[in-house]
Structures
1.
Amino acid sequence: MRSAILISAICSLTVDFVHTSADGLPSFEIDYDNNRFLKDGQAFQYVSGSMHYFRVPRADWRNRIQKMKAAGLNAISFYIEWSTHEPEPGIYNFRGNADFEYFIQLMREEEMLALIRIGPFIQAERDFGGLPYWLLKIKPRVNVRTSDPTFKKYVKKWFSVLLPKLVPHLYENGGNIIMIQIENEYGHNELGFCDKKYTTWLRDTVQSFIGYRAILYTTDECDINYQRCGSIPKVYTTVDFSPLSDEVECFGYMRQVEKRGPLINSEFYTGWIAFWGQPRPPRNAQDIVTMMKRVMAYNASFNFLMFHGGTNFGLTSGGTFVGGSSLDTAVYMPQLTTYDFTSPLDEAGDPTEKYFEIQRVLREANFSKNTIPTPKPSLKYSYGTVNMLPVTGLLDQVPRNLFTTVTNQKPLSFEDIDMNQGLVLYETVLPGNGTAARLPLTINLLRDRAIIFLDHAKLGTMSRSGFNTTMDLLVTGSKQKLSILVENQGRCSNGKFIEDRKGILADVTLGNQTLGPWSMTRYPLNDTSWLTDMDVLPDVRTPAFYRGVFVVPEDGVREKPLDTFLDPSGWTKGVAFVNGFNVGRYWPAVGPQITLYVPGALLVRGLNTLVLVELEEAAEDLTVKFVDKHRLDG
Ligand SMILES: *[C@@H]1O[C@H](CO)[C@@H](O)[C@H](O)[C@H]1NC(C)=O
Ligand SMILES: *[C@@H]1O[C@H](CO)[C@@H](O)[C@H](O)[C@H]1NC(C)=O
Ligand SMILES: *[C@@H]1O[C@H](CO)[C@@H](O)[C@H](O)[C@H]1NC(C)=O
């Protein structure tokens, strides 16, 4: 009985395989004869929503799950992000916000089923599509998402840690996981290859741990070639498409590959990705309603992506490329810190118009029978204006002594010096022969953005997105120090340019001279504790660390401090920390995201600390505000 999926995928099955649950054991399977799921022998359809544990504070997981249930959903879909759990080879993290088993357990307590997308590649608009950065430093180069033996070795090792954790949560083992997705939109032709040996190997590896106790599936976009390449024999094929697509066409492609079984839209888009310097794309609630009704007329199961987007806390947001035939001609576009996505539950977990429309349609269709009260927006609080004090410049001696430096004749990439995220300061002494001259300085491969200093005086910025990686330098002829502060703005999350190493990847030249040797200082921007006890230095210049304190008033009524938004208007570009937690990049100078979401769970009653790492220009009055309104379209 447990092998119903495999057997039924091979031959068209008869209902004999169907578990009637007469033996009292839970079962979840595909009834190929009737194009539906059977859950404990009963016809079943899911309406699920995506929410990623790594984008929502653990303290708010239950609250968001309850709200999804109140909307009428019966399942939640989420990715597991390898880079979160194995940040360095063989070093694992499953605690706190990385504790997905607790997330699954909370879903179970709220009677929500789970659809898990285990990757190993997930895209998800995350840095390197959720793959760990350290794969990029392995020599010789690893071909990710292929049968490359080195890649498979690391995937297998990771899956041997991950999959045993999922086994007790499988539906047929008494848990709530009904489906497990392998890879992610693998059929997309941007990849330029279709390594079926790799995907069938993934299937066999997953099955070696979980057997047939959950339905394995794939998800690919609405295109027959993508569907064909992405599908894996004996793994259930599904499609994804937006409310503006043609569902007849999309389900038609799915049917060409998966002849029978329930129709599924695994990514029913409620909104879209957003980038720095570009307006956020709109998505109309009415289009969602219209497509829901059409999809429901097929008795299809579907998953809203996203139902609750959340936040790319820290430096986890990815980038993408537009156009171009090579990595160096494509336009690199970094994604926002917010992953609000204009989804039905907004970044702070509040219901929007889309939420109420979806809830109404599910109720009218009698899909949802629950009578859970509709959630109200949570209260927000303006904690007011914070006076920031400059503590130290990034180029000053104190932070330098705290951060490690490596030296090499040629500049090294972030990956080659074991740097995942943050900043690297590349420094060299210019060759001087006593004659002053104006010469072009060129960074031949810059990823992604650089601030250039000569003897610590700022000369300007260069950026890969803007294709400006050269500038004239007035060289005096004495031994001048050139400093280049390089920011990783997020590795590409998809497509053929996925191997997006960061830093300076080729020679830097001045006129016709190649510069070097280089010293490289690492600022991972993952800790601010060292700042707490530092005295404020005089004459601090940007880029610099700024510190301020603010008070969360005592309040006898509420369990926890209220959510708020950090408004860095007047500041230019940098990273903010609240009580040592990196709440993400800010860049109000280009927008559209102005404010950063600061969940109440990060705050404590009494004194709280705010640190800003401002890379360009601080606000003139050195103040920043906590406000009660989000501004994502500034
Ligand atoms: C949907 O399911 C209902 C109830 O089982 C059935 O009567 C109807 O024919 C199905 N519709 C489609 C398009 O499969
Ligand atoms: C939903 O249930 C109500 C009450 O049983 C019924 O009147 C209504 O027709 C049903 N709606 C649909 C779309 O089946
Ligand atoms: C000396 O330096 C200047 C400017 O850097 C340059 O124009 C000139 O060619 C250099 N001369 C030699 C001998 O390198």
2.
Amino acid sequence: MITHDVIVVGSGLAGMRAAVEIRRKAPQADIALITKVYPTRSHSGAAQGGIAAALGNIRYDANGVPVAAPEDQPGDDWLTHMYDTVKGADFIGDQDAQEILAREAVPTIYELEHMGVPFSRMPDGRIAQRPFGGHTNPRACYAADRTGHALLHTLYGELVRYNVKVYPEWYMLSVVIEDNSCRGVTALDIRTGEVHAVNAKATMFGTGGYGRAFKITSNAFSSTGDGITAAYRAGIPLEDMEFVQFHPTGLFSHGILLSEGARGEGGYLLNGLNERFMSRYAPGRMELAPRDVVSRSIYSELEAGRGAGPNGEYVLLDLRHLGKQKLDERLPQITELARDYLGIDPVTEPVPIQPTAHYSMGGIPTDADGRVVRGENEIVQGFFAAGECACASVHGANRLGTNSLLEATVYGRRTGQTIANFLHLESQGVGAAIPAMPSQALKQAEDELRELLSRTGREIAADIRKELQATMFQNAGVFRTPEKLEAELGIIEDLRERFALISLDDKGRRYNTELIETLELAHLLEFSECIVAGALARQESRGAHARRDFPKRDDTHWMKHTLAYREADGRARLDYKPVRYGPDGPRFQPEERKY
Ligand SMILES: Cc1cc2nc3c(=O)[nH]c(=O)nc-3n(C[C@H](O)[C@H](O)[C@H](O)COP(=O)(O)OP(=O)(O)OC[C@H]3O[C@@H](n4cnc5c(N)ncnc54)[C@H](O)[C@@H]3O)c2cc1C
């Protein structure tokens, strides 16, 4: 058995930032990090547009044009950032967590700068900032349109500097919780095919999102909600899974992201009639309304027959007026993506786009310190989560762009601090015994793998996955109806039955990617039910959850978080818990959300 004081699962921004913080605050602790992909291939590295913080280096002038703010008069403040986040979340986010996010954003950025993140600069040397949807002021700090890459690689440098042990290409299979205390995980070494029990005092998940449940998605192949499903199977309810963000500007038919930074730099959205149609839906913010609003507007245009292209299936992102120099300097990656995947040069042609599944607002419930909670506030000893897999909930029903790299770093660090404090408690202290790993945990993980490999049915995992992704996109997408959601629940049940009858071509153990993809498919099938059941039950429209039959937000009945529990038969049972506020109650009261 492998033992460590702390095991972090996930080498995205959240996991790496946490590991570095634990090392700083508890230097003696023995920390290890498990990741199914090579650390710098985590999805965080694909982030493009920026990371939010109210540095106030740039402000809008009287004509709404971003200009440099005087150094002694910052053009922004954390409270405005918090308000934007609360409003963007459609008032269902937990305001204690949102306050921490906004307050800690500024020092977090400077800390990243000091670690060496190569942020883009203003001519006077300050960190450059650009506008983003739903933010009152231009507050996205960026490194061209490769912000995530810059952040992830810088943090990886820190990880190496601090000598954190990494198990790359290890696949976490299950999290082991007994008597409400987490004992560690079981994991498959992908290269050898061996299964190990990894026993620890503290286990942290930074396992990322679940966009791969949808056909059109901006997410990496690895964003399959493994951590979320493992927690769910271990008896942790999943929170607010129905809130899935669809980013307005995915490359048509691919879903690959074209950063909101493109609109932040001044890009337009045009329909088939060449109209800047956002004037119909959000005249105040136009293209820079929040993502849920823009994605619904696009669908409304398509449904009204005002789409572009031969079949009116998409709208256009027009960047031509920005000019080649600005595109090369500020948006080189997305320019390249449009050229490579659609053969379209954004310098001379508008780019076909469609909404793409992008971000998981829901996930493993945590308090504002990264501790995993069950029910309303029962803390699970020794289990922590941060980043996209966690639901703190800072993004409520809709995340603002650039707030999630921020969440991953702010809450990664904060959770690292919580874990360091946890280790400093005498009973858990360095050198104290690690709570025992139940002996059956390893055997169970091993048996489950063996059973999966020995199946001899006629179903093929890839077919089931394709069907799930296509129907989820169609039935649980931007606009939802009870008929479609009910149909999807039936489809998921049917696909789960078919999954029981699959057979793998590759029955070997070494580097069996088919096995990994099959395990991931089992996760998609399991948590998708939570998304759909939560969406069917929530009879209102709030943030990213838009019901045709209940077009309005309903604070009287639905100002509460959904919790999906896994029943013994594998099905989801829903319950609810109240929204959390700071000790003095809500800083911001719900109001109508207009842009
Ligand atoms: C294309 C794209 C662009 C984006 N742009 C922005 C942006 O500009 N600004 C912004 O704020 N946000 C952006 N986001 C969102 C943001 O990047 C993510 O929410 C954030 O990076 C998530 O970080 P994370 O650390 O939680 O997880 P990830 O970076 O997704 O990392 C997850 C980690 O978990 C590991 N893992 C998962 N399952 C297992 C398992 N079973 N066993 C072992 N390891 C496992 C993986 O190996 C990986 O290391 C973007 C997202 C995408 C997809």
